[in-house]
Design goal:
Largest sheet of chain A: 7 strands, mixed
Largest sheet of chain B: 8 strands, mixed
Strand order of the largest sheet of chain A: 1-10-6-5-4-2-3
Radius of gyration of chain A: 19 Å
Number of strands of chain B: 14
Number of strands of chain A: 12
Strand content of chain B: 5-15%
Structural class of chain B: alpha/beta
Shape of chain A: globular
Oligomer: heterodimer
Strand order of the largest sheet of chain B: 3-2-1-4-5-6-7-8
Number of helices of chain A: 9
Distance between the termini of chain A: 33 Å
Largest interface: A-B, 13 and 12 residues
Strand content of chain A: 15-25%
Number of helices of chain B: 15
Shape of chain B: globular
Radius of gyration of chain B: 24 Å
Order of helices and strands of chain B: EHEHHEEHEHEHEHEHHHHHEHEEEHEHE
Helix content of chain B: 25-40%
Structural class of chain A: alpha/beta
Chain lengths: 286, 428
Amino acid sequence: MLTHHHAEPIRPKRVVILGAGGFVGGAIKARLSADNIPLLSLTRKELDLLYEGAAPRLAGFLEPTDSVVLVSAIAPAKTVPILVKNVRMVEAVCEALSSREISQLVYISSDAVYADDALPVTESSPVAPRSLHGMMHAARELMLANSTKAPLAILRPTLIYGAADPHNGYGPNRFRRQASKGEPISIFGDGEERRDHVAIEDVAEIARLVLVHRSRGVINVATGTSTSFGDVARMLAHEYGVTVVRQQRSGPSARPLHRFFDIVDCHKSFPSFCYTPLTEGIMKSR
Amino acid sequence: MKSTIGFAGMTHLGQNSAAAAAAHGHLVVCFDPDPDIVRRLEAGERLVTEPGLDELVADHRSSLTYTSRVADLGRCDVVVLSTDVPTNDRGESDLVPIRSLIEQVSRSLAEHALLVILCQVPPGFTRALELPKERLFYQVETLIFGRAVDRAMHPERFIVGCADPAAPLPLPYRTYLESFGCPILPMRYESAELAKISINCFLVASVTVTNTLADLCERVGAAWHEIAPALKLDRRIGPHAYLSPGLGLSGGNLERDLATVMTLAESTGAEVSVIESFQRNSRYRKDWALRTLHRELFSKKLNPHLGVLGLAYKENTHSTKNSPSLALIEHLGDCRLTVYDPVVPATAVNRPGVQAASCMLDVARGVDALVLMTPWPEFRSLAPRGLADVMEGRTIVDPYRLLDPAACGEAGLSHFSLGCPLPRPLEH
């Protein structure tokens, strides 16, 4: 649950985005720019967190009135070396924060920090990652929490979709690309696994809300509605006039893994915010 | 021979217990350290809302003496401590005020007088008091808001904590208890203190299982109100089981006992994960109306007009402690809000711009959605067609199913209640 330092929204003096060149960082940058919020957008070109000297270089950018949004990550972290690199990136951020006062830190984490069987997932669900990617984010959250006295807001988005997503992971993004090329959409088995899919614009909007309220705490970024991959595929197939084909799963058939969120904390933190319904969001991202 | 019974603390519990003692033929001294409370009680002013209490007090007024002089308890054979034990946000008890009252009262007791603690205290509290144990007792209270008079007049049993459960109860106390004509169960202090908590834990278990299955009903198209009667006919569950779905636990007393069990577990290493689940489920169910409103209203209309019927934490009471209605209102987004409660004034709502309706139908006028947050019996008389005529929107959020879902459907209203399948979307 978030607590707001500003009950009424106040524009931050300046927002420093680390990882502004990526899918999520870029969307946050665009959203804040639309509100004319002063920005310092740092991509890997300006600041590579893996380079020696990254910490003092970052510290040199920071002002005490800055709100910092940390999005930089090598994702997904599927191997141990990538996990370690991700941890080293945040080590540099922590080192910079130890010598610089800031106004707020916002970390874009992931719902992978929760156990697969957490149902429904809430902000109070235990952090118990079962993947290297989840462990990477869990470790980074803890490192950051121990490195700054500034209010720390942790956003844990679930599966994000959007036109600019560079990943081609199983789900709305890949389905839409297949359909837009006139190809059949392929799903595993019956595509019965139900997941929560969130529009990139909503992730950016939650980040904006957290910044203008100078919030502290954890918030999941999920719509509260879970849809099966099969239904997403059929919806897009209908829109684009293509077919859905079933792909055999490799290996023994496992129990379908669903993920549901209870987003009542979001309703309480941002009572006037509503998520984009999946159908509308996917159509918008065409 | 009747005893003279003193009650220290003119709380909800104290007022009802004192009136019941008078009704059973005892002379009763009602002490409260607050002279203003005593003055108002003497003047016949209503300080708590409880069906039948005003009449009971009026019928036995000559047996009731109100006083703010603690020395007046000196003429009592038995003094019953009936003060509130306040709790914090986590439901944990603050025992400082009761300790202070015990100290004050015990100094004024007659030499032969007995002291009975009728408040919710944790196991070990009574024995730790530095008072003569042969004159010290703990008695379980089972007050239920809205049914307090009936419970005080006709208790199911008395559970009495004693230093020595094998010893007969002293005559004045036994006389007082026997006048109610129900079983008396003496046991050691700790057992009685934990008996109170055990009763509440069993109630919470029923409530939690009901709420859990009602949630499932809403998701799979089953109707809990069709299932519950079948369960009540099962002897292992019973006709009086708590099988009505609700908005989590509220009122404070059940939460207090769960918090006490958690605290005891922390210091003793007992495995109490089920209690933690009760607490989690309660927190989850409290937000049922907020979830429903976001799904059915806020996600569909900007700045809607919302009507809320009921502010009290439950029917037949003025109490708003842990009120689901006030908790809901606290988290509402931008909207116009009109409220009505038969007893609680609109000023209890801490939100600017709230409109107070003059009657229950008035609250529905022009609203996009109507929420019935307290199950006041009079709300059942609202006619769905009449509501449909004055409402702008079609959404009725009625957790306790006070209105007839079929009649709502016929009136073109979408009716949402706990444990019921979601209504079919209206055709436009």
